[in-house]
Task: structure prediction
Amino acid sequence: AFQCWGRQGSIRGQVRQMTDVDYMKIALGLAERGRSTARPNPMVGAVAARGEQILGEGYHVGPGRPHAEVVALDPVSDGDRDVTLYVTLEPCVHTGRTPPCVDLLIKKRVSRAVCAMVDPDQRVSGRGIDRLREENIQVEVGLMEEEARRLNEVYVKHRTTGLPFVTLKLAQTLDGRIATVAGDSRWITSEESRKAAHRMRADVDAVIVGDRTVKADDPRLSVRHVPGDNPVKIVLDSRLEVSEDAQIFRGARLVLAAAEGVSRERKQAVEAAGAHVWETPRDAGRPLLTGVLKRAGSEDLTHVLIEGGGEVAASALREGLVDRLAIFIAPKLLGSGVHSVADLGIDRLSDAVCLEDTAIERIGDDLLYTARVKKT
Result:
């Protein structure tokens, strides 16, 4: 949340003027409004201002909708003098579902553009800035860049690597168990935590689980407790053994990721039931998770939520595929049972998966521990 100033702001009774930082904070706050709808496009916010006066503001809602710059500049007359546009991402210079935003800035004769960061998309990547400067528009880049990059970390990773941003979500007891020895796992965490987990589903493009999770829990993998669209469901199912009667076959698009050479008869059967089959190289007899994520990225699934089980979590961590962890911890002890993360094959403490940017939030009686995986 960003504090927005009016024509003049005050802190403890002191009057102050609006600054570039103030306007960029407003733009970043606007961009955040597109979190659940903008993907696979970036979240972008923009503010058009003249001195202390905000002329227009906007954010990008989603694919095919006007870009933030278009909305912010709509109230601005062509040729208005001394207009500065504050935008969280470099204006686009290519034609997609909408025309290039740089053309609009030139048409409006914006005097100055302040961009938080360069667009990592190779179709733009500095070309929009160069075009504006060629038209004698003053361009400044890098104001609050760190905040802008963090806001669009999903978009940045997808555009620079082709892979989706990966969040690993776990729901476990205090001693790290996701089920009892007998396999009982409902419900380890509270209703408040489950609601928060559904909010995470609403903010991603796809959810990944292993076939054991489907067989044991028969999950729907849908968004139910909060508003939002259902993500694509991806099940790692080497031999396509998941029953067509499972609940995952209902609702949103279902992908079964199988190992190469899977039975043609089973493939035809699950496809007839409505599933899509991705065949990927094997990893110890299972679909190679890296291959699954590459396929997901190629289909513009930019943010993936891995929900389990323990073997899938371990595989993702071993392969260095996880960007962020979200661990719901219930105030319960089992002493034995199914580990939330299976064996990582680590013998030395120096080889441990290290986390950073850690945070803890109380949700009901549970704790939500979030962190980013430290990249070496």
Notes: Residues 1-13 have pLDDT under 50 and may be disordered. The two ends are 31 Å apart (CA to CA). The first strand starts at residue 8 and ends at 11.
